[in-house]
Amino acid sequence: MLGNINTTTSLVDDFIPQFLNYLKKSLPGLQHDLLEHAGRIVKDHASSVQKWIAQSSTGEISVSDLRWLVQSQMDLSSLNTLKETGLSLVKLDELRQAMVSSLVTTIFKVNIFR
Amino acid sequence: MTSLNPSFHPRNHVKIFSRVLLLATCLLFVSCSPAIAPFSHAAYELAVDLKVDSLRLMDSAELPYSESKKKVGNLQVRMQKAFEFALGRPKNSYSTEQWRIMNDSERHLLGGFLRRWEEESSLSRSFIVEAKTIVAHSFDAIIGLESGKIGGADVR
């Protein structure tokens, strides 16, 4: 009984720092992905619009075509943002699953229910 | 006189109990329902099929709309079904919103393209090429989100 009480406290004391470390490693990754995505959006917008302006000046596309395409780029950005946000949630779910797995493994290793 | 074992002090019991409670709370937290819907093979296939068929139909936009009206109507029904399928799945709001924007005739993706084609009867080849690129990337965003969900490793 005394042995079990000591193992329970050490289990909790071991688990919490591990969990915090895991979070620290995963969350910067998420932040980095979102920032990269934002950078890509700006880059894509600029090069596409430049191309369409050139096409419009030669008459290859009309002014209303140009306007439509610029607006379509915005809508595409919305879809990409939804995608990146959704994928961030997937990463959080994966993190959660990993935590459960780690916790269950640790509990059974320590065998506190003896 | 028996000496009291300090490990059996009531304060220790409270400490142990609170730590076990913390552990149980952590376990409860991590076992909560997922934040986003899992991968659906049906949704993935639907998106891939619609991408191929949409891009093929957009190529016909150089010709009068009246010649492709039936095909456009069929595609719009299939797109609406894809939206409804996404809407019906729990925790699937991001994919649902993607389909909504894609279908919306007031916006500037596939729904908007088909509306423009109808209004102007035919569209220029240069415009079609640029619009196809945008629509293709839009479908890639939908497909990318679906294949990125848990369970979609086989199609990534």
Polypeptide structure, described:
The complex is a heterodimer of chains A (114) and B (156). Chain A is rod-shaped. In chain A, 91% of the residues lie in helices and 0% in strands. Chain A has two helices and no strands. In chain A, helix 1 packs antiparallel against helix 2 (63-110). Chain B has 156 residues and is mainly α. Chain B has two domains: 1-33; 41-147. In chain B, helix 2 (41-58) runs antiparallel to helix 6 (125-148) and helix 4 (93-103) runs antiparallel to helix 6 (125-148). Classes of the chains: A mainly alpha (114), B mainly alpha (156). The A-B interface holds A 2, 5, 8-9, 11-13, 15, 19, 52, 55, 60-62, 65, 68-69, 71-76, 78-80, 82-83, 85-87, 89-90, 92-94, 96-97, 99-100, 103 and B 7, 12, 15-16, 19-20, 22-23, 26-27, 30-32, 34-36, 94-95, 97-98, 101-102, 107-109, 112, 116, 124, 126-127, 130-131, 134, 137-138, 141-142, 144-145, 148-150.
Outline of the structure:
By secondary structure, chain A is mostly helical.
Chain-wise SSE layout:
The complex is a heterodimer of chains A (114) and B (156).
Chain A: H1 2-57, H2 63-110
Helix pairs in contact in A: 1-2
Chain B: H1 10-30, H2 41-58, H3 69-88, H4 93-103, H5 110-120, H6 125-148
Helix pairs in contact in B: 2-3, 2-6, 3-4, 4-6
Q: Could you give a short account of the major beta sheet of chain A?
A: none
Measured between the Cα atoms of the first and last residue of chain A, the distance is 9 Å
Assembly level: heterodimer
User: What count of structural domains of chain B?
Assistant: 2
Largest sheet of chain B: none
Treating each run of at least 4 consecutive H or I residues as one helix, how many helices of chain A? 2
Radius of gyration of chain B, in Å, reads 27 Å
- Looking at the structure, what is the overall shape of chain A? rod-shaped
Number of contiguous helices of chain B: 6
Task: Count interface residues per chain for the largest interface.
Answer: A-B, 41 and 42 residues
